[in-house]
Amino acid sequence: MVHQHFRLVSPFTVAENVVLGDHRDIGRSFLLHTRAIERRVAELAARYGLAVDPRARIWQLSLGEQQRVEILKALYQDARVLILDEPTAVLTPQEADALFGTIRAMADDGRTVIFISHKLHEVKAVADRVTILRRGRSVATVPAADATPRSLAALMVGREIELGRRNGKHAVGEVCLQLDGVGADGDRGVAAVRDVSLTVRAGEIVAVAGVAGNGQRELAETIAGMRAPTHGTIRVRGRQLDGGDPREAIRAGIAYVPEDRLGTGVAPGLSVASNVVLKSYRRPPASRGPFLMLRAIRELAQSLMQRYDVRTSGPDVPARHLSGGNLQKVVLAREFSGDPIVLVAASPTRGLDVAGIEVVHSYLRGAAESGVGVVLLSEDLDEIRALADRIAVMFEGEVVGERDAQTATVEELGLLMAGGEEAG
Q: Which of 73, 95, 163, 423 could form a disulfide with 401 if both were Cys (CB 3.0 to 4.6 A apart)?
């Protein structure tokens, strides 16, 4: 099984995780033949287009790269039954097509593949039959050839759902975020962001597309003040930021929705109410001097829970008890309540169902319509093309091309994401 929530040992290397529990490589010996295992993992990664360094430690990898390791674990063990939960979130369209070919070849060879996905075109491309779950129950099983994305979405949600693109005709305002030649190092001490220049205007959604591990996460963290830039400048409405200081970014009006909503977006052990004021507890009404106003915090949380339809028994429930969709609503409610100038959203719908995706998309569109400049970082080209006005593509830490979202094709963007075409 390739789990949606990873089963990896953070201090271990990629190769060590891949062979963990596989007695074919360990046998009765106390010795692990590391170099030979690393070579086999590298060969398997190259064969299936899952680029990852076998010697890298898991904690040094992005979420997308960690998902590739999970896929490699299953493929390495030559599984007869393979369960894939959202396996293509980190792949370019071309790499996804290659993976689909592999899946079909496995099925033709007598293996069984269960493919779990909310990307409806992928279901159409790879499946023989489609079973739709709603609220934990099977509501239908249909031949994939007879289904359409709209019919599948309606079965998943229980009503007709809007799958269209954002209207390209809308007004944009002044420049609210400007990056000039920004660079930043990754967790392994090497350059992850290289001379990125980007401009975002008020009311505009600018997407940053790319395969996971090409600097998107580091770029988002640099804009949000969580990672210090090595060079270049970041300006919000003309005001230059020093960088590397989250409080400075918050004061400047930057809101941040991280890709890891449970590990970074919230404090799992704290209540929903406490999480809602994580960025505003230093000022009224959440506090008065050195004292927290607990009643005011609970009232604020209840108001935001009602406004953003956070479904839980109350504001005192620990955040870790919420579903992924409700957890994301808490993060969005907190970030939007600060009246941001710029919103940085990294993979905001990862792991959500169609209904949750629709809600998050409506919030992002609403933020742009209210004059917020939105930076959307995602590997999901369908999501990007549905929301963005402009698309910047990152490859190996650099912006290698920028395209208009209304005219860009999936093939064109996929080539840029794979480094197959230079900026024109």
A: 423
Task: Give residue 73's pLDDT.
Answer: 87
Same fold flag, 14-116 and 175-417: yes
Q: What's the whole-model pTM score?
A: 0.72
Could you state, in order of their start, the residue ranges of all structural domains in the chain?
14-116, 175-417
The number of residues in the chain equals 424
**Burial (Cβ within 10 Å: 0-12, 13-18, ≥19) of residue 193:** buried
416: enclosing H helix or E strand: helix 410-417
In the chain, pLDDT over 70 holds for what percent of residues? Answer: 92
- Per DSSP (E only), the strands in 265-307 are 287-288, 291-292
For the stretch 160-216, pLDDT in tens is 655 555 565 677 889 999 999 999 999 888 899 999 999 999 999 999 998 878 899
User: For residue 265, is pLDDT > 80?
Assistant: yes
Lookup: tokens for 424: 């024109």
pLDDT given at position 423? 42
Looking at 126-267, which runs of residues are DSSP E strands? 129-134, 137-143, 175-185, 191-201, 205-209, 231-236, 239-241, 254-257
| Whether CATH 3.10.450.50 fits 14-116 | no
Query: CA dist 142 to 127, 129, 161, 348, 364, Å?
Result: 10, 6, 19, 30, 33
